[in-house]
């Protein structure tokens, strides 16, 4: 029996204006108090409107939605400098974003930008986030099997998430780059998405990383495979969750339709000692006490991001609409999505009226 408890989904997504309502309905269905939409703006040309969509969601549901903005990269990332990235972060903060989302550590995005996560190009940006205490949700890595052609699941191959041709950075190299930027900016308020893919690494390594970097958190967005890893040694992982109860955040990846089926799986794992199956995985719950659940479900996120979402500055948002539309017009690879960006901007302008 799942508990009646206040929940903030710290990590969700939207893909278009219509999906905002879908996400809100999902939150109502699962009795979530608030949720945070994470922008996927750096994922590619087709996602340039992501920050605008996040801002639209915030003004549609004031006080209910947090939003983490993402960086935009021109087609030629070789031309990116530190000031370019810093200016975007400052502007997003002024607009009313509550934090930043970085997909730059996902292997395909890392290949796309061509920038190591600890590149000096990011130094001004990281320095600003650290100085201002701006929280970051960072996707770094992927499951190990995505680097193995024989073991990688078919669905990952279909998504283009296999990294076996030698052109992608390894998981260990990505971990090394994380150590590189944290050694320069150790007070960064970074939450690593999908448990930093540490479930498969085991409790010892997951603990050592948290102990080394006290400002770091993990979130629990599935990758459902990590719950299978947790369930291989539930007693040790229960001890881990108790020890690091202040360092773990609940999240769903909702908005990516399939993830919705995992919400109850995640909650059942955290709240009960049930044994049950999901896909072909055998899951064993760890039955955490209510005071720990309160931290994981909302307290830890509020401690990093605030009790109340920031308000959007609608005047600056209208300026941002014009800026993004000009960006799309001037990028030879982005003009094809101009109608989508224009439609999002029109909806923002209509709503602000």
Notes on the structure:
The protein is of the alpha/beta class and 353 residues long. Helix content is 45%, strand content 12%. The strands form two sheets. Strands 1-2-3-4-5-6-7-8 form an eight-stranded parallel β-sheet. The protein has a two-stranded antiparallel ribbon with strand order 9-10. The longest helix has 17 residues, at 314-330.
Beta-strand percentage range: 5-15%
Query: What is the count of DSSP helices, taking H or I runs of 4+ residues?
Result: 14
Total DSSP E strands: 10
Can you list the strand order of the major beta sheet? Answer: 1-2-3-4-5-6-7-8
Please give the largest β-sheet. Answer: 8 strands, parallel
Q: What characteristic shape results from the CA principal axes? A: globular
- Measure the end-to-end span: 45 Å
What descriptors fit this protein?
globular, alpha/beta, two-stranded antiparallel ribbon, 353 residues
What is this entry, summarized?
The chain has helices at 17-29, 50-60, 82-95, 107-113, 123-132, 154-159, 171-184, 203-212, 225-231, 234-243, 263-271, 290-305, 314-330, 338-352, and strands at residues 8-12, 34-38, 65-69, 99-105, 136-140, 190-192, 217-219, 248-249, 275-278, 281-284.
């Amino acid at each position: 029996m799942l508990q009646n408890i206040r929940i903030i989904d710290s990590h969700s997504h939207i893909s278009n204006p219509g999906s905002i309502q879908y996400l809100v309905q999902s939150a109502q269905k699962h009795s979530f108090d608030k949720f945070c939409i994470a922008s996927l703006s750096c994922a590619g040309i087709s996602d340039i409107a992501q920050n605008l969509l996040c801002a639209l969601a915030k003004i549609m549901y004031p006080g209910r939605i947090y939003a983490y903005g993402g960086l935009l990269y021109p087609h030629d990332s070789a031309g990116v400098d530190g000031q370019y990235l810093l200016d975007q972060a400052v502007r997003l903060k002024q607009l009313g974003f509550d934090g930043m989302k970085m997909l730059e550590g996902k292997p395909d995005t890392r290949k796309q930008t061509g920038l190591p996560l600890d590149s000096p190009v990011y130094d001004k940006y990281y320095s600003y986030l650290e100085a201002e205490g701006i929280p970051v949700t960072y996707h770094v890595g992927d499951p190990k099997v995505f680097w193995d052609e024989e073991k990688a699941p078919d669905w990952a191959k279909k998504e283009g998430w296999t990294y076996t041709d030698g052109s992608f950075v390894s998981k260990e190299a990505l971990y090394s780059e994380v150590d590189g930027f944290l050694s320069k900016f150790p007070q960064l308020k970074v939450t690593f998405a999908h448990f930093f893919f540490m479930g498969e690494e085991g409790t010892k390594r997951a603990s050592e990383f948290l102990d080394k970097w006290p400002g770091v958190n993990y979130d629990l967005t599935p990758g459902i495979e990590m719950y299978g890893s947790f369930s291989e040694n539930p007693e040790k992982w229960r001890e881990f969750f108790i020890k690091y109860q202040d360092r773990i955040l609940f999240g769903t990846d909702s908005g990516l339709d399939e993830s919705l089926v995992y919400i109850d799986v995640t909650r059942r794992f955290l709240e009960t000692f049930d044994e049950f199956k999901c896909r072909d995985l055998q899951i064993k719950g760890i039955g955490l006490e209510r005071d720990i659940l309160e931290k994981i479900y909302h307290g830890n996120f509020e401690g990093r991001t605030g009790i109340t979402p920031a308000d959007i500055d609608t005047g600056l948002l209208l300026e941002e609409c014009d800026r993004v539309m000009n960006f799309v017009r001037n990028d030879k690879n982005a003009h094809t999505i101009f109608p989508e960006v224009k439609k999002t901007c029109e909806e923002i302008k209509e709503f602000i009226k």
